[in-house]
Structures are given as C-alpha cells and as structure tokens.
Amino acid sequence: MSLNVQQNHGEKNKPGPRASGLHTVASDTHAAVTSVQNTLSDLTTDKEESKYGKNLKFIPEGTVTALTEVNNNPGVITTILTALEPSWWNRLDNPKALEALFNLKLNLNIPPEQQLAIAGILKRSRNSIKFSDRIENVLAAKKTIADLNERLKSDIKRIEEKSPKLNIASPKGFALDTVDLPAPTSLQQVPFPPELNALVQERSAKHSMDIQTYTENRLSKTVLDTVINGNIPVEIYSTNTLEVFGKLKHEGYTQILKYTTKDGDYNKYFCVNPETKKSKLVLMTLPGKSYQTQVAGSALLYKNAEGKSIPPENMRIFESGIDLKNTYRDILEAYNVKPETIIFGSQMFHDAFLKQEFKLEKSQWIQDPYLNAIIYHYKDKEGNKRTIVTLNMSPHMFGDKIKSFTSAAIERGAQRIIFNGTAGGLKSDLKVGDLVVPRQIANVNIGKPGQSANIVNNALNFTSELKGENVKIVEQHGTVHTPVVETMPFVSSLKENKVDTVECELANLVEAIQDSGQADSIYFSAHLQVTDIPGTEHTNADKSMTLDPSYINKDINKQSDMTRLVLQQFLQDIQPIKVEKTVPSSMTIETRYQDHARKLYVAFDTNKQIPLNFEVPQKTFMSIMTNILKDGILTDEKLAKIFDACQNFYKRYGFKVNVNLL
Question: Assuming Cys at both sites, which of 45, 342, 509, 653 could form a disulfide with 617, CB separation 3.0 to 4.6 Å?
C-alpha cells in the first residue's frame, strides 16, 4: 500500500478535492491532528477500502498526536501513515533505510533527527493491540509464504540437479485482498468417489508403481511434508479458477502462493489467511471423477519420512456441477463442427500422419479450456463434405471425461470412432511395445470386470494384415479411473479375473456408444500399445521406464500401421478442403424481434486483476450467439437459449456475459 503526497507549491500543483485536507497549513497541533484524522477517515470509506487497505483504521490517535508534535505538517504525517506497510517495521532501526523511505521514496525532505523521532513513535505504536495484531498477522502470513517459497526453491534445485533438462518455474505469490471477486454460488462439497474410499483402505499396501516419486513430481515433497507436519487441510476443486478464488477471498485466504512441479495437469496453490494465520493447500483439477480420484488419491498415498500421511478427514472435494456433455455439445455447435470421424490419440502424430498419407491439413483448431480439438475437412468421392476431429487423451479426454465428449459427438453426427491408446500389460506374455487389440472391454474400477459392452471392435479385422510377433489379440481389456488406484492387491485382483490390459478411457468411450442407442450403426475400432507392465521395473510411473530391448528395431508394428489400415477404408479418392474460420471477440448483432429491427449488444464482464485468458471462451460464446441467430430473427425461445448460455458460461469459465437488447 502506498500513497505519494506532495506538499502544495502553488496553483500549478493544486490538489483535487479528495486531497485538499493533506495540504492545510495547521496553526497548532490540535488542528493538525484533526486534519490528519479526517483525511485518514476519508481515505478508508467503503468505496476506497480496497485501494488503501485496512491498516489506516488501526492508527491510534495517540500516534497521530505524537507525530504531529514532531512535524506539524498534516500532509507529511498523512503521507507517512498512508504509506505504512509491513515491510517498514524491519527498517525503522536503520538510518539509511529511513532516509531512503522518507526523502527518496516519499520525497518529504525530513531532517535526520526528525526521521529517528518519527521511527521511534511508529515502533511504540506497534504495541497498540488493534494495530499490531493486523500488522503481525500480515507479517506472519507473508513469512509463511516466504519460508515455503524458499523450501520450494530448494526442492526445485534438488529436482533440477537430478534431472538437468527440467525447466521448472519458480513459485510466485500474489494477494487477493484488493481483487474484486464475487462469493461462489454453485460450489458444493461432494463425497469421496467409491474408488477413493477403497484406495484409502489399501494405502498401507505396496503399490504397483513408485507412488512416492509419482506424487512428489506432481505435488512437491516440500509442500506435502509441510501439509502433513502442520496438519494443514487440503481442498480439491473441479470448477473454474475465478470461482475458487472467490471462495478463498470470501473465507479470508488472501495470501496465495502458486507453485509448479515436474508433472501434473492442474494448478496448485498454498493459501494463507493473514487474520487467523491458518493455511491450506488448494488443488484445482479439471472436472470428472477420474481427475478427482487421481489428484486426491496420490496426495493421500504419500508418506513423509516418519511414515505419516494426510488424514482423509483433512481433505475435501468441491465441484460446481458442470454438465460436461452439454459443455462439449455447446462448443461443437459454436464452431459448427459435425464430426463424422473421431480419432482419439496423439494429435501431433495424427496431424503429420493425415498430411503425409492423405494430404489433409488443419481447417480449424479449437483451443477451449474444456476442449482441444483439431478439425479436418474433406470431400469424399461422391462430393459430400466430411469432417475428422482428432483429440489428445490428456488432459481433456482423460478418464471418464471421454464418455461425455463421445456422447455429445454422437449427438452431433459422429459415425466412426477410432481409438489409439496406450495400456499397461497384465497378461504374462505381454511386453512393452506390443500392439494389442481387445475383444471385450469393461470398467474394472472395483478390481474385476463389470458388464462388457456388446460392441464389435473392427480393428480385429486387420490384425492378420500386420506382420510381426508384437501384434496380439487380448480377450479382456479393463478401464480404471487412474493408475493411482493400482495397488498390488488391486493388480492381483485384475489378473485373477483374467484382465489382460488396463488403461483409463476405453470402457468409458464404449459405454457412451452403447448408451447412445446407435451402436449398430457406429463404426468402432480400438487398438493400444503396451507402454508399461504394472508391478515390474517396466512400470511407467513417470515416463522413466525404457522400451523392452527386444522391440527396439525399425520393423516393429506401431499404432500408425493399424490406423492406416482402418482409415484407408474411408479416405480413398478424397479432396482436401482448407477452411479458415475466424470468430470475433465482441459484436453487435442485427436482428428482428416482434417485427421490429433491434440490436443485441454482447459485453464480457471479465476480471482483469486475475491473469487468465478469456479470449477463447469469448470466441466460443460469440459462435453460439451467431448460430442461435443465424436466421436473423430473435424470439422468446431464442432469448431463453441465450440466457441459458450466459448462465452456463459463468459456471464453466467464471466470467459474466451481459447481453442487452437495444
């Protein structure tokens, strides 16, 4: 907090009406004290509270009187008091620091003997209960952040020494006390997923991978040890960032330290309440039970040097009830995408593959906070326009999220779904590098297969066309929420129930096809590359395992070989189409409402004090508006749709959309 107040030197620098009290030449100490107190009161009205902070309200009257006896100019005294901040207190015994503060920073031209006298009064004022409590608590909160910051830097240095190629950003702190944030409206605490409760019961058991390293690389050993030793609560949120910050500020947690780690597709914050000195760890994940289970499960499984873990009762999970299926549908509608063919897997690989094999280039690239999709358009040999959508698994399609997207895509016309995944090998004859094609696919979150979907995997038709020992058909494939649940007892149960391979998405995708009622008409193909063997030295906990030496040769069958065979059926004699679609970030829409020419003006109420990118959601909303009003006619039904879109966008992205009918 700082306010630089200059003394009056004539009409040229005449102050505005709010500052006029600072320049009154007082005839006596009483008048000077009254002038300073009135100005301080004026500066701490509700309107100016966020600008000048709360410290001014706690300046004792005796302190003001003593200061004005040393220097009778109220402008000087008010400048000093309004510039007070916690960092001053460790400078009051340093004459050089006082000179820099009073005469260089504040430009007050105070003699050295006055500087020392003022510093002495300020030090004594620190004993005032109302004032010192506020200052001490702020200092304590900042010290907590600073101490953790230093330990994080040491942790980062330790990791970088082990892995020189890592580029880990230094932790950065910020404050929410002056940021205008609404209280959250849709956040609700939710119970632990059943899989997480089961994991808690088994956390004393050996894990199938190095869960300590896995968790340290995602959450930081330093932070986790601090949380366990300090009995600090942990909160996990599946919602937009602004709603979380609104909740934190509403609860008084305004000192925020964001930190980054080697891995982990989510934001991490250590938060302190400067009034109560309490702190908590806040983790923000994407929506879905799979993400909740992964983040919460890894944190709960971590053990410090004494073997202690985070107690389950110290962890809470919150979500805002976002309807993911409707979210994906709205995004696809906004960009006018009707995805006849969907390819799940590495976008980078498929972009190069489609360009090389079929001369297709990107037509659109959707980069929304909820969806990253690359769109390709082409004409088939009959001249019909067709669309291919490619998607990475992580982070937007991870776990159960893929089911919501697939359901929305089928409603938008998806006819072919091709899945290129990776899996852990459980069957004894499987090795890293094997290309597997499953017959049966089921969720195995309870440690054994549930009901397998009655859907034919068309990739089975091409296994004979691929030469090589690494192409294998497996009878039973299983899907879990996350590898974090794969303790050794859990893996043993899967093997006992004859599950051959395991990963995190495929059964959810198949369930979406089955639930659509169109399973007979949708072409489905799935194949996976074995990338690790759970419970062995080839467990791919942190991308550290090496490929089985017997498969390191240029003749190995890869996922691309199977993908090529599948796509060749549909992409013969095609004509590529390159379409560049741009969407304005703001607009006034000409329309007709009740037989009168009207205009719809769209404005976005974004919070500029929070460093988030609102550009992509704005474009998505503009596309939705354009699609609703594509015929130029506004009806009450369309107004209701626009209202629903505004509500959904606030819930998903955390900013308000104001639509005015002019």
Answer: 653
